[in-house]
Amino acid sequence: MLEVNNIDTFYGKAQALWDVSLRVDEAEIVALIGANGAGKTTLLNTVCGLLPPASGSVEFLGQRIDGLAPHSIVELGISHIPEGRRLFPHMSVSENLEMGAYVHEAWKRKEETLRQVYEMFPILQERQGQLARTLSGGEQQMVAMGRGLMSRPRLCMFDEPSYGLAPLLVAEIFRIIQGLRDHGITILLVEQSVRQSLEIADRAYVLENGRIVLEGDGKSLLKEELIKKAYLGL
Ligand SMILES: Nc1ncnc2c1ncn2[C@@H]1O[C@H](COP(=O)(O)OP(=O)(O)OP(=O)(O)O)[C@@H](O)[C@H]1O
Ligand SMILES: [Mg+2]
After folding, report:
1. I need a labelling partner for 226 at 20 to 30 A (CA). Which of 7, 70, 192, 234 fits?
2. Which ligand is nearest to the CA of 15?
3. Which domain holds residue 15?
4. 82 within a domain of the structure (yes/no)
């Protein structure tokens, strides 16, 4: 479904990704793990069109998307749920959700999609009129996820959705992500909760200093020495 081929990405003269290749097949959960500053966010930003790669290519459903504008990439079916949630703090829950439907096809079906999002996150329906800034961290993350679903994506890219949440909520977020995959949505998941993401991932990649250093299926990576030492503290 998604194919990233040998990309190099720069911030000005500073290179952040080096010859990175990665693939996500339909209905998979693929985890991308790595330390702070490894380049995980940079990779998601490259895929969603915010940071065009200097070389290499990105293909989605057989079509080249590197060089397309971010809104065109959303229109094709990729949704990016960014690091830090980025809600509109002075807008209500329902207004924040509607902002996610600002692409042509999704806008026509926004009432239907909104009902589906409320079914998935009943707490958001209860709080639909409340300003986003007054929500708890977990509720804000649910709004960010719901907003990402409003464009009716085929592929969702989550950037650290469990960041800063209490353990029970972290488990809830992982459960929701598995539920999305069971509904046929493909997932590219960036996470610091390495153990939990490898447990739900079909496959995973490890990024170090802007390069992919390891890949494999989730369960076998959990047993890798490098992962145990560097990410699981064993
Ligand atoms: N806007 C920017 N301008 C210049 N350099 C940047 C910018 N954003 C990130 N970088 C650099 O690119 C590298 C990769 O950063 P990136 O944010 O992709 O890492 P990350 O893996 O997402 O880290 P974290 O886990 O902390 O979110 C880092 O060295 C970082 O300093
Ligand atoms: Mg990041």
Report:
1. 7
2. 1
3. 2-77+153-231
4. no
149-160 per-position pLDDT tens digit: 999 999 999 999
Residue 83 inside a domain? The answer is no
DSSP element (H, E) containing 74? helix 70-76
Residue 49 token pair? 């069109």
In tens, the pLDDT along 176-186 reads: 999 999 999 99
How far, in Å, is the centroid of ligand 2 from the Cα of 157?
Answer: 12
Q: Give the per-residue pLDDT at 31.
A: 96
pLDDT at residue 87, rounded to an integer? 93
Same domain, 46 and 33: yes
Q: Looking at the structure, do residues 129 and 193 belong to the same domain, yes or no?
A: no
Query: Using the 8-state DSSP alphabet, how is residue 66 labeled?
Result: T
Q: What is the mean pLDDT of residues 51-65?
A: 96
Which of 108, 124, 150 is the last residue before a domain boundary?
Answer: 150
Q: Do 67 and 163 have their domain in common?
A: yes
Tally of CB atoms within 10 A around 72: 13
- Closest-approaching ligand to the CA atom of 210: 1
> Which of 42, 47, 50, 83 most suits a substitution to test ligand 1, by most atoms within 8 Å of the C-beta?
42
pLDDT band at 107 (very low <50, low <70, confident <90, very high): confident
Q: Please give the tally of structural domains in the chain.
A: 2
Tracing tokens 């397309």 back to the chain, one arrives at: 68
Task: Report the separation in Å between the CA atom of 120 and the middle of ligand 2, taken as the mean of its atom positions.
Answer: 26
In this prediction, residue 4 carries a pLDDT of 98
Q: Whole-prediction pTM value?
A: 0.94
- Do 70 and 158 lie in one domain? The reply is yes
Q: Which two tokens stand for residue 121?
A: 């996150």
Picking from 150, 179, 200, the residue at the C-terminal end of a domain is: 150
Q: Is 143 in the pocket of ligand 1 (CB under 6 A)?
A: no
CB under 5 Å of ion ligand 2: residues:
40-41, 83
